Amino acid sequence: MLAVVSENHKLYLRNTPKAKIAAPNDILVKVDYAAQNPIDVILNDNKMLKDGKISGNDFAGTVVAIGSSVRDRTLVGKRIASFADGHNNDYPSGSFADYAIAKDGIYTVLPDSVSSVEAATIPLAYVTAVHGLYTSARLDLEGKPAQTILVWGGNSSVGRYALQLAKLNGHHVLTTANGGNNEELIKLGADKVYNYRDTDVVDKIKADYGPIKYIFDAIGTASSASACAKSAADPSHYTTVRPDAAHTKEFPSYITVSTIIVYQVFFTDTEEAVVGDKYLTDAYTWLKSKKLVCNVPKLVGGLDKIEEGYQLHRKYQIKGVKLVYRVGEVGRL
């Protein structure tokens, strides 16, 4: 099969052995589309991929084979969206390839109304949002009555799913963006959108709602972390997409800081795995009823365009869309 492979910390399009069922919970998928995530670029640029590692996380495609312990024995032939354990050099596949391995419990079946190009935007960002909102080590909002939540960076890939997931469970959702698509973010679930570029954005949030108890930082930069801390109540909970909790060292002690490490969903029987499975299962019904909508895909081309997409990330030129690649439309990297 063709795949984008790391060699000496550079990416090349190579013929590789076809992915195959190797574990009882494996699901073999013929990939139609694969989506780019910031972590894909970070892993490559920080030289964290070993030689031979297939790059990429998110994918959507058709199931062609399943392992012996996969619970849905009718899965072959269905379209699913899933993601690979992209930071694990021992994981058997990546998404930038003709075939990829999904794991049982880490996929969502796709209704006919959702295209594979749209669905490729779901998995990693969606599960990141789920973990941030609904696991006990983060905001711990599962089963809680309606709360006011601030999602900093509502137009990011994770932020857009966080808005929808919070609203689906009845919460009051505030968010920040650059002011260019407020109406769209309100349709996704935001009750109010603030322009993060306003120098008095924190004052405006607190004037309207007071200090905020639950804060989801979907950006994880120094400026977003600082603004979130200034918006926080005493006591409050802050969770960030930065797995190293960067920029939180000087936070007041009344802010409980947590990080989201989405790959914990691969640790069988953990809360992250159980909650991820639940919400990925629920996603089918929500997608079918249009209560959940996919992020906006931007088709870059085939797998030969990976470096072009990575450059757009490095230059901070990806705004409000998710870059997607059509697998099978290939050339040379």
Automatic annotation (TrEMBL):
Residues 6-275 form the Enoyl reductase (ER) domain. InterPro entries: ADH-like_C, ADH-like_N, ER, GroES-like_sf, NAD(P)-bd_dom_sf, Trans-enoyl_RdTase-like. One of its GO terms (molecular function) is oxidoreductase activity, acting on NAD(P)H. It comes from the Eukaryota. SMART domains: PKS_ER (SM00829). CDD domains: enoyl_reductase_like (cd08249). It holds the Pfam family ADH_N. SUPFAM superfamilies: GroES-like (SSF50129), NAD(P)-binding Rossmann-fold domains (SSF51735). PANTHER family: HYPOTHETICAL OXIDOREDUCTASE (EUROFUNG), ZINC-TYPE ALCOHOL DEHYDROGENASE-LIKE PROTEIN C2E1P3.01. This is Enoyl reductase (ER) domain-containing protein. It comes from Yarrowia lipolytica.
